Amino acid sequence: METWVPVPNGSGFGVHNLPYGVFSRRGELPRVGVAIGDHVLDLAELAAAGLLADRRWFASGTLNAFMAAGRAVWQATRDRLTTLLTDAAYRDQVEPHLVPLSDAEPRLPFDVADYVDFYSSRDHAANVSQIFRPGGDPLPPNWLHLPIGYHGRAGTVVLSGTPIVRPCGQRRGDDVPVFGPTVKLDVEAEVGFVVGVPSALGRPVPTAGFRDHVFGFVLVNDWSARDIQAWEYQPLGPFLGKSFATSISPWVVPVAALESARTGPPAQNPEPLPYLRTDEPWGLEMTLQIELNGHVVSRPPFARMYWTAPQQLAHATVNGAALRTGDLMASGTVSGPTRHERGSLIELTWDGRDPLVLPDGQRRAYLEDGDTVRIQATAAGPDGAPIGFGEVTGTVLPVIC
Amino acid sequence: METWVPVPNGSGFGVHNLPYGVFSRRGELPRVGVAIGDHVLDLAELAAAGLLADRRWFASGTLNAFMAAGRAVWQATRDRLTTLLTDAAYRDQVEPHLVPLSDAEPRLPFDVADYVDFYSSRDHAANVSQIFRPGGDPLPPNWLHLPIGYHGRAGTVVLSGTPIVRPCGQRRGDDVPVFGPTVKLDVEAEVGFVVGVPSALGRPVPTAGFRDHVFGFVLVNDWSARDIQAWEYQPLGPFLGKSFATSISPWVVPVAALESARTGPPAQNPEPLPYLRTDEPWGLEMTLQIELNGHVVSRPPFARMYWTAPQQLAHATVNGAALRTGDLMASGTVSGPTRHERGSLIELTWDGRDPLVLPDGQRRAYLEDGDTVRIQATAAGPDGAPIGFGEVTGTVLPVIC
């Protein structure tokens, strides 16, 4: 399948991807678009020109209405876009609605309803256990039985590129806590999925319902202040150590674009309870990449995640909790078994004991003011075509407190 | 100050209260109203009749737009409503817009943005510590230094009266976890405040900013499944043990209605860090009441809460986290020092070891299917007039899983 749109070699935005986002051009209202190569296809204009079925979904500043429309609409839209972008007969009609990515200012792609963060990488959980409790159990006793998760702050989910002001807060001191800017500002490289179709209160969503409810995936950087978190998190979990900002990528990769990437996740032993079992494999062949100030410091492998997205969704609703359009559920830090596959600085530097040395000679235990972090990811597409997730970036700004 | 509206003796909805809510009558769109005695004053009609400045805020299915309008608008509206309801000259114009409460179907009063739950009763925290760790420290080491809190699920905040389906989930078993309906379904009687005016990312809100940002208070029942919670909560806090439902009362009591209730909170020792200090007392003279199947089982005293609402607000934003209109922050379970002042069944029955015996002879360790819980509260108003919070109720429905 070939598109008539020029797609640069190695672009993750080929015709097999077609990720959705929201963008604006100078002086115009935001609208929904689809990334293709170095362009965005303006779906609001395309619909206004009569080339798509429904305009309401796309002349919008968020994806929420389209996400709520459901799987049949998602599939029909994807099929139609594929036709428009591959059949040269449509080129003259469609081409005027392609906007260079460089002219398109991305917006937060959807209004976040609730934000849940999981803890589903076994390597990450084991690393954290070793760092904080050397010689202790490698995993909490519940870890192999359920995908541990908690609610984060939806109101501080921000778009990639938003500056990250170093947070202030309390951390443990000798006698009394110390107040000031965090000295352990960290990243967590994650992959999140976003709910399109809501569910009713009191009605769990089974693992097999994943494709009916979930619209797509984004990259997530769950910025973390480790010192604030360590002091506050007992007994009710992370709060201010996480709630200052969570960044997401602008392009939502549709679930349908990831079919070729699906792979068997690691064997689960003990066997999960029935509500957590899946009929089809939902590991994803996908590699993340973390850059710090332009230097690649890690390539976390997503296929090793122990708990999969459908298991996370089923777990989050097994108590009858309702889903809303825009619910964002993130995987938790993605880490692999080797040092250069770890998805956070606390793991990469072993809580600062073994700092990173960048190629320019700079050393980092945690993030310093002015540092820029960029996370990217690519999944396996059909015929080896890369399915790109774009990127999620952020630069640390200093704070006075 | 007297109102010309008949207000029954002992009503908590006198003219010093004027709580806001959203209601509908058969066949009509929901709109904003104010409770007075046994009536609701229809603010949408009042505004349409030219008796209030702005109609947009009130011909709405939520309070959010009015809450976002800010303190000057809240005060001007409250002043105007007070005039309309006390000056007999307005009686003929206003009286047609009074709806009997029995004809008004309440709605969820505001769209919840983020939901945060604190843990600010020292008696509650000490009880929980004793129940789970007898002989251990009475409080976590951070407890006296910061108001511990965590994010709950905003999407499952429901209106008083919504049936509560008993949640299913995992709980600790002998060898492996057991799956099934919770056998430890509990309540938490709490008082929450709701944010009206948002704040910017990266800009903490000081304790002195409380009145500029917070619109009012509601009652909260933070339903809890203790067995699910106990198994899941390490290390990232409560998740499914809480996320199935949180009920709130229909009427939002304005901050201005609670001026007479303000009192000195318990002495704080050690002295809190500067960002948690307050210039004025923000304890509230207010007593909650919990009924189980019509029998009063507890009267928790709110004035004993260790951490106050302005301290909670300042803490939740000290890391730069932004506020949104509709953010709900709940106090945590309100408990007093004696048995009949405890705000949860886990405390009232000491985790079931000492069941409640109701006057009809029924015994309860935790909630059974069909049980109804009703929480009410009254604060001290001017000249001893009660400021009522209405009620938050819920009945437990059985589940099959």
Automatic annotation (TrEMBL), chains A, B:
Residue ranges of every copy of the Fumarylacetoacetase N-terminal domain listed in the record: 16-109
Catalytic class of the enzyme: hydrolase
Enzyme Commission identifier(s): 3.7.1.2
Keyword Calcium: yes
Superkingdom of source: Bacteria
Name of the protein this chain belongs to: fumarylacetoacetase
Domain Fumarylacetoacetase-like C-terminal: 116-396
SUPFAM superfamilies registered for this protein in UniProt: FAH, Fumarylacetoacetate hydrolase, FAH, N-terminal domain
Classification via Gene3D superfamilies: Fumarylacetoacetase, N-terminal domain, Fumarylacetoacetase-like, C-terminal domain
Cofactor: Ca(2+); Mg(2+)
Annotated Pfam families: FAA_hydrolase, FAA_hydrolase_N
Source species: Actinoallomurus vinaceus
Listed pathway(s): Amino-acid degradation; L-phenylalanine degradation; acetoacetate and fumarate from L-phenylalanine: step 6/6
